[in-house]
Amino acid sequence: MAAIRENILASLQVRDKFLDAMIALDEPNSGVMASDLAQFLQTNNLPLQMSGREQELSSYDLFIFWHVLAMSMPLAVGNAAHSGPIFLPWHRMYLIRLEEMCQEVLEDANFGLPYWDWAADGELPRQNQWRTDLWSSAYLGEARGAVRSGKIGQIQVRLVQNPQTGVLLSVEPRPVIRDSGRSSLAPTLPSEARVAAALDQTIYDRQPWNENAIGHRNELEGWIQGPQLHNRVHVWIGGDMGPGSSPNDPAFFLNHCNVDRIWEEWMGRHGRIYEPGRNRGPQGHRIDSQMVAVIGNALTPEQVLDPSQWYAYN
Ligand SMILES: [Cu+2]
User: pLDDT tens across 93-137, in order?
Assistant: First the structure.
């Protein structure tokens, strides 16, 4: 049976399960050491450097590693997970694998990741946007500063990407850090009108397939007059949501689940159509390109275009 993905504010049960799963996955008991990842990068000649303290990592940390790695793999257009058509399918695969891991630790095969409908909060007055229930100890904890309250207060950050050098650092475990609503680039959350504009786009993606392309993917990723939508939520939260290690903040998954939900809505309206197809468009972004995977089998955009075998949105 497929999982149902719900609004995190709509179900206390889903909220609790999500937070419990985050904590459980963050236990540093994966059997993988920081030096194992550094070794893996070297052996496979991958374009990512890693340094810092030796420590055992959590399963959660492997998702951080995966995201940073994909982001560090440049393609003719964007990278293996961003700034091109692959952005939406790659993050869909990534969330599917996280959802599966949550289901395992929760022993609940029907658990679905929750989403955060950020555009609803984007309609609030600016000063209220970072003071909603979501940023309380019952949900995600503090909107600003070190997150020490509630269940997310237990989450430890161990892998951080240096935004200047791109190096992935294994650091002394510390809390998640946020700086919500203080960025001059994104003083407010995305608006409903902006989501509607992304849904109105009739083309999924098109040439030049990058941050300048006119289409649904680029509207939703948020480069057009950016930061908008997905990008804007990263910038608005700030702190750990900034660099490539942004999945360190569980808010990352709520953001991306909402992004994926909007993409689903778009496909419901315009058809399950992905561009570019086979043998055309930039390498690594095609419908039959194998996406970069650290956990689970590498899938293609074509294989995730219809997610109904895994989940549906409520
Ligand atoms: Cu990403």
Answer: 999 999 999 999 999 999 999 999 999 999 999 999 999 999 999
281-300 residue pLDDT tens? 999 999 999 999 999 999 99
Structural domain contains residue 313: no
Q: Which of 226, 234, 228, 235 shows the shortest CA–CA distance to 253?
A: 234
312 part of a folded domain:
no
Contact predicate 95/247, CB 8 Å: no
Average pLDDT, the chain: 97
Indicate which CATH number applies to the domain containing 222: 1.10.1280.10
Tell me the CA–centroid distance for residue 108 and ligand 1, in Å.
26
- Three-state secondary structure call for residue 89: helix
How much distance in Å is there from the Cα of 81 to the middle of ligand 1?
A: 6
pTM, two decimals, is: 0.98
Residue 269 belongs to what domain range? 3-305
Query: Which tokens is 254 given?
Result: 């709520």
Cα–Cα distance measured from residue 253 to residue 244, given in angstroms and rounded to the nearest whole number: 14
The pLDDT tens digits of the residues spanning 149-180 come to 999 999 999 999 999 999 999 999 999 999 99
b/e burial code for range 170-200 (CB count within 10 A of at least 16 → b): beeeebbbbbbbebeebebbbbeebbeebbe
- 38-56, pLDDT tens digit by residue? 999 999 999 999 999 999 9
**Ordered alpha helix ranges (H), 74-221:** 87-106, 118-122, 126-129, 192-200, 216-221
CA of 67 to the centre of ligand 1 (A): 6
Q: How far is the CA of 254 from the centre of ligand 1 (A)?
A: 12
Per the structure, the count of domains in the chain is 1
Cα–ligand 1 centroid distance for 91 (angstroms)? 7
172 CA → ligand 1 middle, Å: 24
Q: What is the mean pLDDT of residues 191-215?
A: 98
Q: Please answer whether residues 25 and 59 qualify as being in contact, where contact means their C-beta atoms are separated by less than 8 angstroms.
A: yes
